[in-house]
Each structure stands twice: as structure tokens, then as C-alpha cells.
């Protein structure tokens, strides 16, 4: 029996995708855990999807969820919000209740709205009854990072090239590990 953790993201310029991949590495570093890397449809059809589009059935079946978006004026990006607006059937049936979840983001500057964006992504997850995980201060990099990383979730300051700092990589991987270990515990493995 294995544990499948969905890593759902929207990324226009590659930084949020880079974090998603590091979270997936963290998930897959835990025995019996598999990361399912998925994205959402672009509303204006400009996206070049590198990963499959998440389906509601995949979301329903996952054992845990990491969700990421770039900062758009302190909020999650519209395509990700649009995806969640279509999850009412899962909300009505309670399919996501008690599943662990975490959030991640990237912005073009350190003070670009990372923490408010992370909080806006938590809202639909809380409405679905999911259990939100952050990064605890026991993670040493959280004390020393000068780029991304918050107790609310993994984050990065986009350098325009999709590359992350070592601190951002380590914090994202640790968040993925924490999510996977929690999903395993909740599943009883």
C-alpha cells in the first residue's frame, strides 16, 4: 500500500514550478510515498503545460496535497482559484476532510505578498476540512534564510530564471517530507 501526495501548482514563469518539484522530491524521499505533480488549466490558454492537468478524481483520491501559486497582488493566481471554484462536489461529499495539506508560493520580491498569498490558498483547503501544515521553526533554515521560506509554507523570491536558492530548496523539500510523513500517519501506514 502506498501513499500518493498531489503537488498541485500554477506557474507562469517557472519559479512556482521549481518549488513544486522540490516539494515532490521531499515527498518521494519518504518510503512508500509518491508525488503526483499536476497543474491547472490556464484561463486565457497561454500556458505551456509541463505536467498533466489535475482532475477532481485525482484530487479526491490523493492522500495529501501541496498547493502552489505565484503571488498575484497578494492572492493566489486566478487559474488556481478557478480550479477550486469547481470543487463543490468534493466539498459536498466531504472527500477532502482530514487530509493533510500545505501551500507554497513565489514572488518577484521579498516583500511581494508571499505570506498573504499563502494564507489565501489555505482558505479553500480549510473549507474542505483539510489539515494545514506549515514549516515549524525547528527547521534551521527558517531562521537564516534571506530569500524565501515562511512558517506558513515554502516560498521563493523569483530570480527570473526559475532557480531557487539552497535555503529555498531545503525548506521546500522539508515541507514535502513533513506532508508525506503526515499523510502516511493519517493513512495508517
TrEMBL record:
InterPro entries xrefs: Flavodoxin/NO_synth, Flavodoxin_CS, Flavoprotein-like_sf, Flavoprotein_WrbA-like, FMN_Rdtase-like_dom
Q: Which GO terms describe its cellular component?
A: membrane
Q: Does Flavoprotein appear among the keywords? A: yes
**What PROSITE patterns does the record tag this protein with?**
FLAVODOXIN, FLAVODOXIN_LIKE
Q: Which UniProt keywords apply?
A: Flavoprotein, FMN
Cofactor(s) in the UniProt record: FMN
Which Gene3D superfamilies has this protein been placed in?
A: 3.40.50.360
Flavodoxin-like domain residues are: 5-180
What's one Pfam family here? Answer: FMN_red
Entry's Gene Ontology molecular function annotations: electron transfer activity; FMN binding; NAD(P)H dehydrogenase (quinone) activity
Domain of life from the UniProt record:
Bacteria
Of which family is this protein a member? Belongs to the WrbA family.
Known PANTHER family for this protein?
FLAVODOXIN-RELATED PROTEIN WRBA-RELATED, FLAVOPROTEIN-LIKE PROTEIN YCP4-RELATED
Q: What is this protein called?
A: NAD(P)H:quinone oxidoreductase
Record organism: Vibrio aquaticus
Amino acid at each position: 500500500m502506498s501513499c500518493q501526495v498531489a503537488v498541485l501548482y500554477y506557474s507562469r514563469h517557472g519559479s512556482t514550478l521549481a518549488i513544486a518539484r522540490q516539494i515532490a522530491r521531499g515527498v518521494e524521499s519518504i518510503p512508500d510515498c509518491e508525488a503526483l505533480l499536476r497543474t491547472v488549466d490556464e484561463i486565457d490558454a497561454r500556458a505551456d503545460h509541463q505536467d498533466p492537468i489535475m482532475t477532481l478524481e485525482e484530487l479526491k483520491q490523493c492522500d495529501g496535497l501541496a498547493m502552489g501559486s505565484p503571488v498575484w497582488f497578494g492572492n493566489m493566481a486566478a487559474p488556481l482559484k478557478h480550479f477550486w471554484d469547481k470543487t463543490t462536489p468534493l466539498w459536498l461529499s466531504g472527500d477532502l476532510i482530514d487530509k493533510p495539506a500545505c501551500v507554497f508560493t513565489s514572488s518577484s520580491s521579498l516583500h511581494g505578498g508571499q505570506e498573504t498569498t499563502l494564507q489565501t490558498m489555505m482558505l479553500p483547503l480549510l473549507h474542505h476540512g483539510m489539515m494545514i501544515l506549515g514549516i515549524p521553526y525547528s527547521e534551521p533554515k527558517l531562521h537564516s534564510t534571506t530569500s524565501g521560506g515562511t512558517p506558513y509554507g515554502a516560498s521563493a523570491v523569483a530570480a527570473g530564471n526559475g532557480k531557487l536558492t539552497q535555503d529555498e530548496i531545503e525548506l521546500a523539500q522539508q515541507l514535502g517530507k513533513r506532508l508525506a510523513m503526515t499523510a502516511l500517519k493519517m493513512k495508517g501506514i
